[in-house]
Amino acid sequence: MFDMMKMMGKMKEVQARIKEAQDNLVNVKAHGESGAGMVKATVNGKKQLISVEIDPTLMKVEDKIILQDLIVAAVNKASEEAEIVAKEELRKSTDGLIPNIPGMDLSNFMG
């Protein structure tokens, strides 16, 4: 028999764990690089840029456009990695609480 009160209790627990996972995404770091490592970007699990490292050899005025492109590429790679890591953190935080239902996407809970 279906126990509605038990299910409601589980949903509250799931909501609490999802909220905790969302709050902790600030502490998750993902990295991306471009130009064979000459430009490196780090973002957090909320896809906020934390840092950019640039190889000093790229600091020439004539290389400005290349440098801009490499920064964009590195940040985009780091953001893609952050999305993967964030989804994994959410999966871990709700493991055992939510059944693995094919097609059920909880990524919209990541905020």
UniProtKB/TrEMBL annotation:
Pfam families: YbaB_DNA_bd (PF02575). One of its GO terms (molecular function) is DNA binding. It is found in: Cytoplasm, Nucleoid. It comes from the Bacteria. Residues 4-31 form a coiled coil. Keywords: Coiled coil, Cytoplasm, DNA-binding. The keyword Translocase does not apply. InterPro entries: YbaB-like_sf, YbaB/EbfC. Transmembrane segments: none annotated. GO terms for cellular component: bacterial nucleoid; cytosol. Binds to DNA and alters its conformation. May be involved in regulation of gene expression, nucleoid organization and DNA protection. Homodimer. Belongs to the YbaB/EbfC family. This is Nucleoid-associated protein DQQ10_08590.
